[in-house]
Amino acid sequence: MDRCVILMLFTSGFGFSCSSHLSLRTYHIISKGLTWEGAQQYCRENFQDLATFESMDDVNSITELYDWSWIGLHEYSKSWKTMSKDINSWRWSLTGEGSRTGYYKWRDSEPDNHMLMEHCVGMKPGGYWFDDSCQREKRFVCYDVVEGKNAYVYVSEVKSWYSALTYCRQHHIGFPVIENSDQQKLVHSAIPSYSDAPIWLGLYRVPWVWSDGSQSSYRNFSSSKSENYKDEKLCVSAKSNSEWSDFNCSSVRPFICQQVSELTTLVSLRMESSADLSDSTINQQLLHQLGAALLRLGWTNVHLQWKSGPSQQQSLTSPEYSPSC
């Protein structure tokens, strides 16, 4: 069935365009010295929040900058010490979400996020979990469903966490999820008894989080290693040459605030499908796929929402609006 629908895009930070990038962020340089939390409170009271950057273009839009000014990026140790719901806490790759049950089987003193560089989780032969650098190579177990039954497939070839995830998705379903002791036993039992090598699990986390909740992946650290990794909380400052570094959040520094405008864009989509687009489950699946495609193109902070029309062919917007590129 051929039907026309309207997709509404709510974007913050930059606008939707057929051929251009439109910045909607305005940055404000504040010279007074405050702690990171003090700067965050000041920005939220007088503007919107501490600064988020999507690209080097955003950074270069600031013509004058005090050395080591606070920006919105920060990291909490509680995010990797617990199975919490924080945006940068541990999550399962199969669902993209944190643990629903809070189950874990950490080895003593783990996770420790050594040097702030351990963002993926492995399992020791004894069954205990530990965090490690995602670039390390290990064997792994994939999850699949065979003849209606859950299957756990051991792979003896060593790969980095990301390469192992790709392999599992290409040849099976993905990494398994462990939400209770029974699932833990099933994954552990997939490891051959003769093996004394650790394996990768599907647990990972995305380090650092922006104060405004943005999903921007842009980073510009001057070094890949933190000098302050033992601190309970770390916050990021930007230098006048645009390089970033982490500091104890209690230090007093100038800072950068932001004001962000939100843009709503209507995009006309014509679909040939027999699917019932009034079904909320189908709608959500389509939005998820469209959102993933936009994310791959570098779009962050985009909220998608359907605006359905009264008929298959009738225009769904006012006569003045023409949803064409």
How would you sum up this structure, described in words?
- The protein is an alpha+beta fold and 325 residues long.
- Among the domains are: 21-79 and 87-145, Roll (Mannose-Binding Protein A, Chain A), CATH 3.10.100; 148-222 and 229-261, Roll (Mannose-Binding Protein A, Chain A), CATH 3.10.100.
- Helices cover 18% and strands 34% of the residues.
- The protein has 6 helices and 18 strands.
- Strand 2 and strand 3 (22-23) form a beta hairpin.
- It is globular.
- Mean pLDDT is 81; it is low at 1-6, 9-23 and 309-325.
List keywords for this structure.
325 residues; alpha+beta; Mannose-Binding Protein A, Chain A; globular; disordered C terminus; CTDL_fold; C-type lectin domain-containing protein
Ends: how far apart?
24 Å
Supply the CATH class of the domain at 21-79 and 87-145. Answer: Alpha Beta
| Global structural class | alpha+beta
β-strand amount: 25-35%
* Rounded mean pLDDT score: 81
User: Are there runs of 5+ residues with pLDDT below 50, and where?
Assistant: 1-6, 9-23, 309-325
Organism: Takifugu flavidus
Domain C-type lectin: 22-143, 147-258
Protein name: C-type lectin domain-containing protein
InterPro entries: C-type_lectin-like (IPR001304), C-type_lectin-like/link_sf (IPR016186), C-type_lectin_CS (IPR018378), CTDL_fold (IPR016187)
